[in-house]
Design brief:
Blueprint lengths: L3 E2 L14 H14 L8 E2 L1 H8 L3 H13 L3 E4 L3 E4 L4 H23 L3 H23 L3 H17 L6 H8 L1 H10 L5 H18 L2 H12 L2 H5 L2 H4 L5
Parallel strand pairs: 1-2
Antiparallel strand pairs: 2-4, 3-4
Length: about 240
């Protein structure tokens, strides 16, 4: 019998100052990314409604949104399941993300020195926060800050839809990235890669910046070699 999923830890109190759908979406999305909700498992719509103290209507909205982001599959009369990992979709998402982000970093590195230094300073603040998250082994916060750094770079291009495109395409990568943070030394590895990126931005060399970004993004392939062997049930 398939286990129905609810959050193992108590849900955070829903704030009246934000949409309940937005808040519940973030909680459930984090549970999927952290692998608390594992690939292929059934999500309990009723259980989530009870846990968050809401009706099933906002929960259905959350699940539809998660489906659109690629995190769950909804089967009428059968239920909603966390999507399994797909090597094809992961590699496709990685290809798209790398193409966009290398283009982003090249464009930014061609800017004036004051502009480049401003970008690098903004990114350094995020990296400093990442170091604190790493010290506390808070991999969810670490990954959110990782996303914030890449989104910040995208926003500096002033192409309004670039950050949205990257966010839409990388959902299949998020859980793999989360798993990679459990590997020994991975926090420092990523931090050093981020530092190399902002150093290249300051240098004004598009080639150095593109190489630093590619090396950083292609790091996901190291964990992709291990996951199918250690967790074939995820695929």
């Amino acid at each position: 019998m398939t286990q129905q999923l609810v959050l193992n830890k108590p849900a955070k109190e829903i704030s009246y100052y934000r949409s309940s759908v937005d808040q519940i979406y973030e909680f459930v999305r984090d549970a999927i990314i952290s692998m608390e909700f594992q690939p292929g498992q059934l999500i309990s719509e009723t259980g989530l409604a009870q846990q968050f103290g809401v009706s099933r209507t906002p929960i259905r909205s959350v699940l539809v949104r998660l489906s659109g982001a690629g995190f769950v599959e909804i089967f009428p009369q059968r239920g909603t399941y966390v999507t399994k990992l797909s090597m094809t979709k992961i590699c496709e998402a990685q290809f798209i993300r790398e193409a966009l982000e290398v283009a982003i970093i090249r464009k930014l590195t061609l800017g004036e020195i004051q502009f480049r230094n401003h970008i690098a300073d903004e990114c350094q603040q995020i990296i400093d926060a990442q170091k604190i998250a790493a010290d506390h082994d808070d991999f969810i916060l670490f990954q959110k800050l990782d996303d914030k750094l890449h989104q910040t770079l995208a926003i500096f291009t002033h192409h309004v839809h670039v950050a949205e495109l990257i966010e839409a395409e990388k959902s299949h990568l998020d859980r793999v990235r989360s798993l990679s943070l459990h590997m020994r030394g991975q926090y420092n590895r990523i931090l050093n890669q981020h530092l190399a990126i902002i150093k290249a931005i300051r240098s004004g060399s598009p080639d150095k910046a593109a190489t630093a970004m590619s090396m950083h993004l292609q790091d996901v392939y190291s964990i992709l070699e291990l996951i199918p062997q250690e967790h074939p049930e995820y695929f």
